[in-house]
Amino acid sequence: MNTIYTVDVITLNSWLESTEAIILDVREPYEYQEGHINGAINIPLSAILVEIDQIKDIQGKKIVLQCKVGGRSMRACQLLQAEGFVHDVWNLEGGINAWKEAGYNIKL
Fold it and tell me: Any coiled-coil ranges, and where (predicted)?
């Protein structure tokens, strides 16, 4: 069984700068459009299992899931794990709110 990890915003920023990770924003499209982490792929929690094909072939990168505060993204991690997703996944601790509070930019 694969593992669900948590990651803090400082570490995630480092991973994104070094292209070591990809980030999936599991919020609804209207939330994503209000502001998101640069490079984030928007796959809402409600569609995560339907859209899993977009991410199943990712190799060599950490897969980080993110929402507003961390609850929906943890649920998405659990759903992926329950469906036999073959990668370890990371949940962004505190979500995009923590990202903004740390002073990192968001893309509108």
Answer: none
pLDDT (tens, 9 = 90+) of the chain, 108 residues, equals: 578 999 999 999 999 999 999 999 999 999 999 999 999 999 999 999 898 887 777 878 999 999 999 999 999 999 999 988 888 899 999 999 999 999 999 998
Which residue type, as a one-letter code, is found at position 28?
Answer: E
The CATH number of residue 66's host domain is 3.40.250.10
Please, where are the H alpha helices in the chain? 9-17, 29-33, 71-82, 95-101
Are 62 and 87 within 8 A, CB to CB? Answer: no
The phi-psi region of residue 103 (left if phi > 0; otherwise alpha if psi is between -120 and 50; otherwise beta) is left
Specify the residue for token string 């990371």.
Answer: 90
